[in-house]
Write the structure tokens for this entry.
Amino acid sequence: MALHLQDTTRLHSGVNMPWFGLGVFQVEEGAELIQAVKSAIAYGYRSVDTAAIYQNERGVGQAVAEALAENQLAREDLFITSKVWNADLGYEATLAAYDASLEKLRLDYLDLYLIHWPVQGKYKDAWRALETLYTSGRVKAIGVSNFQIHHLEDVIRDAKITPMVNQVELHPYLSQRELRRFCKEQGIQIEAWSPLMQGQLLDQPVLKEIAAAHGKSVAQVILRWDLQHGIVTIPKSTKEHRIIENASVFDFELSTGDMERIDGLNQNKRTGPDPDHFDF
């Protein structure tokens, strides 16, 4: 269980991944992005999650370079994730996409590289490419994003290496219980994107009641719920006060009753696309 912001979970590869990180989805290149990443790292965040399709890898790379220098950190102190986009799924194309991401990020390696979406007929070739990157020591850990149980079973059937992480939309209205159980059995770490449901849960009555009882915000309660369920979480924010508030979740604990009430909010409701029905 995560006790502070820099606590980690050990992936089945032996790599330590922070339980808590900063997401930068829908944050455009520019000063706001750079400042957000630098603020997070200065405050103590050690994990940053981006993707090729976010088109902000250059800004993340610049922010990381500046933050390392300003905070006297080593590259090994940070955990940087990116993802291969659907158009680049394929053995050679995925290898090239990895090189392109590294170049934009100005890094020698990534800590975690993910297949962004399970494009039918393409993701298995891409997985072979990730295995090649991993076995040749070019990336510390490999995984997938938005994979359902049947996608994971399909990959694992022919894989030399089981995915280490599955990053999926996950929040109290989409608690992904069966997928979480399957991933736990397979030794795959679940990671939540859109943990706050893009702000749609901040007025949820049950969550407000639990938050008030703990003297915390609804966002903090949701992120704490993630951690107590053993879910890596990467809330997105560009505002420094929110980046700090989001991470202030290590000084309280939700009771079993609180956890069960939040679990009971599940509606299998998505904000993002359904991984079985997407056309991009």
